Write the structure tokens for this entry.
Amino acid sequence: MLFPALLEPTAAVAVGTPDGTLTYRELRDAAASVAAALTPGDRVALWATPELATVACVVGALAAGAPVVLLNPKSGGRELTHVLEDARPVAVLASAAAELPEALAGLRRIAELPGAGEAAAWPEEPADSAAALVMYTSGTTGPPKGVVISRRAIARNLDSLADAWAWTAEDVVAHALPLFHVHGLVLGTLGPLRLGGGVRHLGAFDPERAAAALADDATMLFGVPTMYHRLAEVAEDDPGVAAALRGARLLVSGSAPLAAADHDRMERACGQRIVERYGMTETLMITSVRHDGERRAGYVGVPLPDVEVKVIDEHGGEVPADDATIGGVLVRSPSLFDGYLNQPQATAEAVADGWFTTGDLGTLTPDGNLRLVGRRSTDLIKSGGYRIGAGEIESALLTFPGVAEAAVLGLPDPDLGERIVAWVVPAGGERPEASAIIDHVASELTPHKRPREIRFVERLPRNAMGKVLTREL
């Protein structure tokens, strides 16, 4: 069963959002009413705002066996139209207060609020193999593709994370992550509910608000690197925030690499080293630092239970586990997606013999820890005959005192093939000497990995999960 705590619900608080709280009993009643209005197998859209009704609606749809198509409330008209035409949902789940765009006007709207109406019976549990979620990936070579995730994949992945993090019903997760992604919805919301614990959504990220949640009843904080960067800055000057972070059982970061400098700043400020994990929409979580494992900057841990990872060269052979040889990361897992909606050819190209090609580049240590160095499509730079990962250069840049943020790309060069170019946000507003930055990278890594050009910018373009949008540089 996906949510065993809802079979015999208690008066414990399951969900807290800026608009209130829901106990497990209230969540069960509201979700059951949503489920009663749905037909198993019919896809429904979810207008994923951080509200109580959103959580009740998604739990109700999952209970009914109605696959949920996640919609970003900030989607532009073209992207939203594409998703609706591709997924063809029969209804939209949204809070009563949400203002929906014209594109959704023709869909039946279900807006269940806590305590609305008499409680319906809890439906029969759908098959484990049934589709649970359809999440659209951001397209790089075409429009976004709908990733179909089964109930079994969600359950197995969450149970594996519970093992890795010693995550139990005693834990309460605080976060401010979007609910239309794996990180915020599957890990940050469905995870606590599967285990019988609690989730406290902050609405929007704010360091003081996150600290207040941890000072209250939250035991774990889920965030992305930009959030921890801000937390570290505040914690250095605010003893109250530092104390709240120090009291957390686990601080977990994902969705993008966490800079070594922020690892160190957090440890200095509050005595905590952050747990990193790695996953994708198509795979859910792949690796994680274990709760009792070594937390090393730049490493995203070991494969979760039942998950296999290998790193291969251009010819398909596995590279040595020497923490130096870069290759493509492949994963085989019971939490793998069922396929891309309406795109069998794209599915076949992504999965071969059960192995999913992530498109990420990394190295493996002899003890199985994975280190990511970038994306094959954008972050593998071939310069002067060398294969260089953009991620390791970015990490080196961030150890320079005058650099606050950095992104690296390889641009065409008639002599080198590609030259390394770095976009840098100066720390404190003052631009350091570009030559000093270049020399620093050369000394930290090797001379052939140094940027040939530094471009200073006021900010880096990022998406809702904190990932740098390199196509906008």
The chain has a mean pLDDT of 90.
